[in-house]
Amino acid sequence: MQNLIKQIEIVEKKSKFLGYLFHCESVDDVQKVLGELKKEHKKATHICYAFSLRSPFLEKAVDDGEPSGTAGRPILSVLQKKGAFDVCVFVVRYFGGIKLGAGGLVRAYTKTASQLFS
Question: Which residues, given as ranges, of the chain have pLDDT below 50?
Answer without folding.
Answer: none
